[in-house]
Amino acid sequence: MTDITAMRPAEPDWSTVTAEELIAYRDAENRVRASTAARIITGEPDPGAAIGWQQVALPGRELPVRVYRPPVAGPLPLVIHVHGGAFVGTAVQSDWVNSHLAAHLPTVVVSVEHRLLDWETPLSAAADDGWDVLRHVVEHAGTWGIDPARVAVFGESCGGLISALAAVRARRTGLGLRAQVLVNPVVDVTAAAWTYDSATRYATTPTLSLPLLRFFQRLAVPEGADARALSPLYTDDPAGDLSGTAPVLVVVPTTDPIADHGRRYAERLQAAGAPVRLSEYPEAGHAFLSMPGMAPQATPARAEILDFLRESLGG
């Protein structure tokens, strides 16, 4: 059996990492995450879904997306998925959950291979990627074989932030969403982001640490940028609240430095009158849904997400 730990690169010192070191680390880590050997951790894809890469032509750029399709005729519901990782990560790491949703909902899942953060690419670029793919697929529903009236967004970690921002944009522009699924989402990239109790209690965990989060924040919000505009916890729509936001399932692993991000966002949505369900998974760590081989809580979480989307995206 391949030793995945031995294949993974050593983490750099996040307080001093250079651009060259970040690129080298990201490339090496993503090769591991996309490898067949990594499936002992990331899980085997569901054989009931066809999986393939496509290119999406967006304003000023082309972007890869990973598409999961069931063997049934459309038009089908659409789930736009955004993987976690921020400055490292690939849609392939989410094959286990996305192929299962595609096969068993059934639905078309389009997972966005968004631009990863670095000193030249802030969070706003990744947020644009999530929104632009959502809008493109809905506008070309016939080509994609999807029903534009049955659409959901689904994101993990930084992808949860991107998905939440896309849902806010969808409300502002009148693009109808049926549901949001936000798994261990980052929803605050302001200076207050790491003052929550969970960040103090779980400052160092195997899958996420406070130094790494601080590095993420430095890349996400360049000097002079408006951190509140990129923080779903604070982002307001023109009506001043989120009462018209699509129903939300917030999934929170409890031993996660950003567990309180999800909890606070669920509270804010509830206060605004938005339909929201907060579901906590005891003893689960950050990114647990992408690691079913190590986190037994991933399987019931996947089942809950499937049930929520089935209820939300029904005919």
How are the secondary structure elements laid out?
Blueprint: H1 4-7, H2 19-33, H3 39-42, E1 50-58, E2 61-69, E3 76-82, H4 95-104, E4 108-112, H5 123-139, H6 141-144, E5 146-156, H7 158-173, E6 179-183, H8 197-201, H9 210-220, E7 248-255, H10 259-271, E8 276-285, H11 298-312
Helix pairs in contact: 5-7
Condensed summary:
This protein is α/β, with parallel strands linked by helices. The chain is built from eleven helices and eight strands.
Any overview of this molecule?
- This protein has 315 residues and is α/β, with parallel strands linked by helices.
- The protein has one domain (42-312): 3-Layer(aba) Sandwich (Rossmann fold), CATH 3.40.50.1820.
- It is built from eleven helices and eight strands.
- It has helices at residues 4-7, 19-33, 39-42, 95-104, 123-139, 141-144, 158-173, 197-201, 210-220, 259-271, 298-312; strands at residues 50-58, 61-69, 76-82, 108-112, 146-156, 179-183, 248-255, 276-285.
- The chain has an eight-stranded mixed β-sheet with strand order 1-2-4-3-5-6-7-8, with helices on both faces.
- Helix 5 crosses helix 7.
- The chain is globular, with a radius of gyration of 18 Å.
- The relative contact order is 0.13.
- The mean pLDDT is 93.
- This is Alpha/beta hydrolase.
- GO terms for molecular function: hydrolase activity.
- Residues 79-289 form the Alpha/beta hydrolase fold-3 domain.
- It comes from Planomonospora parontospora subsp. parontospora.
- Keywords: Hydrolase.
